[in-house]
């Protein structure tokens, strides 16, 4: 799917980090010192943030949104759309986005929608916001993206526990004079590469699905927990992401050399480095920001903006490309001008 | 493509390690230096040098380096 959508722009980005820090080195007594050292060397992740048990992804996103609304000094009445991108919603039903309409005191005329995606989800959230604005349905849409992935992970699964962190983000997309290009693709044949097998309606959770099983690498999980085939995801990403981005850049009639910021989904250092190498873009153009936060799922791209672009004018944001990829399997990229965007530093950084 | 060259590329997956006595018959997953993280580097190496995409399942099914070589060769010839 390719589309160029006009008369809109990304107005502001904010993020909220939980205060609890899990350092990877603290897991050495559990997983072994050498294993932990090797994993850190590959992932580049030294610590992650983990939300309190009584806090959900929507709570984190709500805080990011309240901060953004206050800083932007936008009237609540002017927000007419809300998209919540998460795989860790508050309830099976209703949609969490509707709950957020009430909690953020938005108008009852607000259109709300949940988007059930992870690492690629931010792109889908922006796409939904862009369509509402282009159709004339909305003028200001909040895209709230965040996950509490640690709650899907078995404590015995080091392959995941040492990678995923938590964060809530808010992005305001508004009517304006800008342009956004989208290129989104799906490959459902890889549905089982990143999956929580049980707990849905195909395989309801049962005593059977709660049985702990260890794999060849010594990672333990039940079928109620998240499973990730790291090799499968890596193989998908390194082959699909570079052509997806290149096609989008062509579609925009840009030259790759002119792109000043490439915001890649921050899966882990190894993955981002390799994709960057394949894209042949400079290190400083496609930064890595996983050391202190890990992979925060749908929040990595807005967190990257919030963390790095709030620190002054280090980047030329007139031609920005962002790309999310993962669960589904799915991937998508966006090309846009972000010189008018305001970035707010992560809260609790 | 040649097996000899493939073995040399395979060794480079383990950048800091001194690897000796590696040949086509080596059961690569039994090497001391092998880990699930090496598998990622292996996928990257094959992608970079042979422009072929191998999956986690491909690696799980292969036993020796020659199995990997044959796999890459067959994917290249598709």
How is this structure best described in words?
The complex is a heterodimer of chains A (349) and B (78). In chain A, the strands form 4 sheets. In chain A, strands 1, 4, 5, 6, 7, 12, 13, 14 and 15 form a 9-stranded mixed sheet that branches. In chain A, helix 7 packs parallel to helix 8 (269-279). Chain A is 28% helix and 25% strand. Chain A is built from 9 helices and 15 strands. Chain A has one domain (1-349): Thiolase/Chalcone synthase (Peroxisomal Thiolase, Chain A, domain 1). With 349 residues, chain A is α/β, with parallel strands linked by helices. Chain B has 78 residues and is mainly alpha-helical. Chain B has a single domain (3-14, 21-76), classed as ACP-like (Non-ribosomal Peptide Synthetase Peptidyl Carrier Protein, Chain A). Chain B contains 4 helices and no strands. The radius of gyration of chain B is 11 Å and the shape is globular. The model of chain B has no long low-confidence stretch (mean pLDDT 86). The chains are: A alpha/beta (349), B mainly alpha (78). Chain A binds chain B through residues 38-39, 42, 159, 217, 229-232, 234-235, 238-239, 270, 274, 278, and chain B through 35-37, 39-40, 43-44, 47, 53-57, 59.
Proportion in helices of chain B: 55-70%
The sequence of SSEs of chain A as H and E is EEHHEHEHEHEHEEEEEHEHHEEE
Major sheet description of chain B: none
Number of domains of chain A: 1
Give the low-pLDDT segments of chain B. Answer: none
CATH architecture of chain A: 3-Layer(aba) Sandwich
Question: What's the pLDDT, averaged over the residues of chain A?
Answer: 96
User: What is the multimeric organization of the chains shown?
Assistant: heterodimer
Question: Radius of gyration of chain B, Cα only, in angstroms?
Answer: 11 Å
Radius of gyration of chain A, in Å, reads: 19 Å
Under CATH at level 1, the class of chain B stands as Mainly Alpha
Principal-axis shape of chain B: globular
Please state the structural category of chain A: alpha/beta
* Strand count of chain B: 0
């Amino acid at each position: 799917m390719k589309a160029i959508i006009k008369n809109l722009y990304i107005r502001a980005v904010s993020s909220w980090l939980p205060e609890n820090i899990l350092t990877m080195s603290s897991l050495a007594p559990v997983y072994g010192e050498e294993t932990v050292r090797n994993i850190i060397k590959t992932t580049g992740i030294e610590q992650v943030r983990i939300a309190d048990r009584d806090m959900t992804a929507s709570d984190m996103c709500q805080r990011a949104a309240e901060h953004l609304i206050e800083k932007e000094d936008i009237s609540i009445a002017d927000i007419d759309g809300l998209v919540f991108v998460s795989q860790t919603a508050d309830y099976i039903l209703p949609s969490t986005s509707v709950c957020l309409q009430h909690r953020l005191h938005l108008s009852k005329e607000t259109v709300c929608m949940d988007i059930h995606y992870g690492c690629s989800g931010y792109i889908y959230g922006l796409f939904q916001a862009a369509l509402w604005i282009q159709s004339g349905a909305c003028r200001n849409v909040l895209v709230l993206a965040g996950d509490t992935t640690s709650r899907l992970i078995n404590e015995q699964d080091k392959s995941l526990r040492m990678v995923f962190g938590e964060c809530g983000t808010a992005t305001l997309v508004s009517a304006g004079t800008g342009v956004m290009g989208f290129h989104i693709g799906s490959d459902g044949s890889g549905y089982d590469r990143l999956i929580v097998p049980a707990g849905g309606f195909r395989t309801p959770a049962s005593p059977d699905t709660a049985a702990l099983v260890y794999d060849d690498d010594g990672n333990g999980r039940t079928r109620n927990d998240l499973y990730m085939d790291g090799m499968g995801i890596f193989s998908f990403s390194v082959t699909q992401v570079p052509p997806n981005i290149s096609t989008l850049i062509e579609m925009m009639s840009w030259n790759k050399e002119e792109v000043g910021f490439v915001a890649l989904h921050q899966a882990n250092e190894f993955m981002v480095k390799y994709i960057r190498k394949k894209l042949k873009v400079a290190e400083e153009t496609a930064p890595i920001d996983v050391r202190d936060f890990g992979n925060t799922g749908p929040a990595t791209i807005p967190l990257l903006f919030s963390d790095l672009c709030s620190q002054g004018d280090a980047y030329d944001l007139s031609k920005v490309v962002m790309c999310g990829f993962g669960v589904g399997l799915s991937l998508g990229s966006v090309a846009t001008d972000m010189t008018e965007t305001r970035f707010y530093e992560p809260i609790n950084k | 493509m040649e097996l000899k060259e493939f073995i040399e590329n395979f060794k480079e997956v383990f950048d800091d390690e001194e690897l000796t006595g590696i040949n086509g018959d080596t059961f690569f997953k039994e090497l001391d230096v092998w880990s699930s993280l090496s598998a990622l580097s292996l996928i990257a190496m094959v992608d970079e040098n042979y422009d072929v995409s191998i999956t986690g399942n491909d690696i799980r099914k292969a036993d020796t380096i020659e199995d990997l070589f044959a796999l890459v060769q067959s994917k290249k010839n598709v």
